[in-house]
Amino acid sequence: MGNSIIITRNLRKIYKMGKIEFSALNGVDLEIEEGEFVAIMGSSGSGKTTLLNMIGLLDFPTSGKIFLDNTDVATMDEQQCTSYRLKKIGFVFQFFNLLNELTGAENVMLPGMIKGNSNSREKALELLQLVGLKERAGHKPSELSGGQQQRVSIARALINDPRLILADEPTANLDSNSAMQVVNLLRKLRNEQNQTIVMVTHELELGKLADRIIWLKDGMVIKDEIN
Amino acid sequence: MINLKEIKTAAFLARKDTLKDWKIFVLVIVALSFSLLNIVFIQALMSGLVSEIYAQTVDLSTGHMVIEPDKDQEYLYNINNLEKKLEALSGVVGISPRYVDRAIIIEKKHDKKSSTTLIAFTPSRENDVTQLYKKIKSGEFLSDGDENEILIGKTLADDLELAVGDKVKMVFSNGVSKEFRIKGVLDAGMEQIDRGSIYVTTQGYDKFLNVHDKASSVVIRLADINQVENYRYMIIPLTRGEVYTWKTKTEYIQRQIESWGMVTVMTTLIGILTAATAIAIIIYINTSSKKREIAILKAIGGSNSFIMTIYTIESIIFGLLGILFGNIVAYGILGYMANHPLQAREGFQVIPVYNLDLAISASIILFLSALTAGIYPAWKAAKTNITKTIWGV
Ligand SMILES: Nc1ncnc2c1ncn2[C@@H]1O[C@H](COP(=O)(O)OP(=O)(O)OP(=O)(O)O)[C@@H](O)[C@H]1O
Ligand SMILES: [Mg+2]
Hints:
The complex is a heterodimer. By secondary structure, chain A is α/β, with parallel strands linked by helices. Helices cover 34% and strands 30% of the residues of chain A. Chain A has a six-stranded mixed sheet with strand order 6-7-8-3-9-10. Chain A has a four-stranded antiparallel sheet with strand order 2-1-4-5, covered by helices on one side. In chain A, β4 and β5 form a beta hairpin. In chain A, 48% of the residues are buried. Chain B is an alpha+beta fold. In chain B, α10 runs parallel beside α13 (356-382) and α12 packs antiparallel against α13. In chain B, β7 (167-172) and β8 (177-186) form a beta hairpin. In chain B, the strands form three sheets. A six-stranded mixed barrel of chain B has the order 3-4-9-6-8-7. A two-stranded antiparallel ribbon of chain B has the order 2-10. Chain B has 14 helices and 14 strands. Chain B has two domains: 4-57 and 253-390, no CATH class; 74-240, no CATH class. Chain B has helices at 4-18, 22-62, 79-88, 123-129, 154-159, 191-196, 202-206, 228-235, 246-249, 251-289, 291-299, 304-339, 356-382, 386-390; strands at residues 65-68, 76-77, 92-107, 112-121, 136-139, 149-153, 167-172, 177-186, 197-201, 214-215, 217-222, 242-245, 342-345, 348-350. The radius of gyration of chain B is 32 Å and the shape is elongated. At the A-B interface, α2 and α3 of A face α1, α11 and α14 of B. The site of magnesium ion has 2 residues of chain A, from α1.
């Protein structure tokens, strides 16, 4: 294969709830190329979020391997994972997940500030312009609409120029018009900056805008199709 | 490790976070202020009580130093000679020989009797050493030439239904009895004086009990009370009697205070625990209500130490403001109490002692407990499982 940024090998995740075990991922093998825009689809409970969490180093597999940039993530300690998340990964969460006490601009610049960039503010304003919210930079999340909040969190995901953007149902709370806007924005980014994008979605219409759709069912890949 | 830029970012978030909800902000500061007050209050009152007891004892009873006869002697002898030697010491500002005896006082109208301590001194000399003369409740203090007058403690006077001007009969240890007029009633605020003592002048006492050139004790006042130990060593060679300082004379009080000391330590410990618990609870509630935000911070790449730093800075902010307002409140309340002292009983006022030492040590204690109490919830918060919190239902 070419330059795979994400590789998973026989990935399994078993959730334990007391004595009951539930197998959420049952051996997932994936390869995602640098610069690809991939949609992950499947019914509720099929393991999409679980998979995204593993790739994003937010949770760890029960067995199997994940390689990010050809590095086995099992060899990374917590600090390295945190640092990788900060520098290489941008998250867009399903439920916006902005900090309420900060303005839009402050939310966007936060990962940049944590990383120690000195130009975070200008960059945050540029990104807000990119997502069409420059004039809303000083507003708190509670003063923004759902779609606007989602676009702020996309801007936040981009502040540190991540190579990988992971978006878990970024359009779930949006009307179809805003949803289309968000996905087109992600596409545009990929086109302009060659970022790798993995997006979970329930809507085929949106999945079709990606390069490729990976279908999950009961914790397994059942279909992997190029659009 | 965490770097300066991260600290700045953490400080930025800590500031945003603490000021987000001003009601909680005020609540935390109030809780901390009262915790500080709690620590300070008992200590200040105890110190006030202790110094008042010492001051009373020194001013009304022992003076700065006391010379008493050796165990096997009834009196100190060659008093005139001793007085001369003491007067020669610079820094000795008052010397008063005293005679202590037992006597029976008889109220004649109803024939009420009471056994009391009889103390004789020369008023002009005594007034150089103690401040008994300030404790006259009614009537007047004795003058040197008063031969037929006595002073009587307030409680004793009440018990015998006596007032200034009344005549009483006194029976002395040698069986002699004599009539006296009550010249003044004392309200000293000390049981020993108010309930159990009658005072006469040496001149009057000498009339029926020869006290020439001897004394039961000599009390001394120095220019500087802190020099008592030095003077003790200077005075020891001058007399065959025992030389005590007010400290050794008040050992019984000290023992009592030591036992309070334990109480004070316990109370302070409880105060600190209360403070720490209050802070811990508030920060804990704060952090658990913000688990989602902590998870976001972690998900976007904030390290555990970064999150710890945020909450540590918050604890520092709270700690410092708690110290500031706590001390202001303490200063206000204790200052008010200093001007309007607690009157334990008449003539006995407790003025709380709130000094820099106490303010500093209480502040340090509060700050450390704020910090400690902040660190555990911060650590808990940093350990929060990201996935459960962000995606969890
Ligand atoms: N922390 C957990 N503990 C126990 N079971 C879990 C946990 N997280 C997920 N699961 C289970 O694992 C399965 C996969 O969950 P996951 O969240 O990955 O599904 P999903 O594909 O994202 O679904 P949805 O489309 O509803 O978001 C589900 O059956 C879910 O109940
Ligand atoms: Mg999901």
